[in-house]
Amino acid sequence: MAAALEVFTERGLDCPLEEVARRAGVSTGTVYNRFGSREALIDAVVPDLAGAKLADAIEDARRALDPWERFRAYVEAISELMAADSALSDVVTRRHDDSPRLRAVCAESFGHAHLLLRNAQRAGSLRGDFRPEDLSLLFGSVAALARTSPGTWRRLLCFLLDGLRAEAAGP
User: Fold this and answer.
1) Can you list the domains of the chain with their CATH numbers?
2) Are 31 and 41 in contact (CB under 8 A)?
3) Helix, strand, or coil here: 137?
4) How far does CA 8 lie from the centroid of its chain?
5) pTM, whole model, 2 decimals?
6) Bridge-partner residues for 126, per DSSP?
7) What b/e readout covers 123-147, taking b as 16+ CB neighbours within 10 angstroms?
């Protein structure tokens, strides 16, 4: 399972299971005999770690002083995690939505994120037309850029966050 986690972290949840088997020093058949399917392997390896990382990001964000900073800290933390961990990027962007456990992890995390979003809007610091589902678009953009141009995703994120400030909203 450690080999699967390494490979998923490096290459994402769609990586060839042959690579997982090679890294584990076993045959691909052994991987299938032990887990039955890619989805079962993902379910065995990813949800607990992804859930812990996402929960840590929420907890860290809650330490910020005001609602905007909590929202910003959360978005930045998740973006950092996605850039460093392809498996987590796939979880957050729901590229692998076949796993009930991963769906539950995402639902819990995004529930907390929606609270951060609403609190920032109520405080008047996050533009009012930003919707919870827009987080998926934001994270999808960051994830795509982190994969194709790793050095530039932070710049895009700064532009996006600046545009989400309430004072940036137009009529």
Assistant:
1) 2-45 (1.10.10.60), 47-168 (1.10.357.10)
2) yes
3) helix
4) 13
5) 0.90
6) 165
7) eebbbeebeeeebeebbbbbbebbe
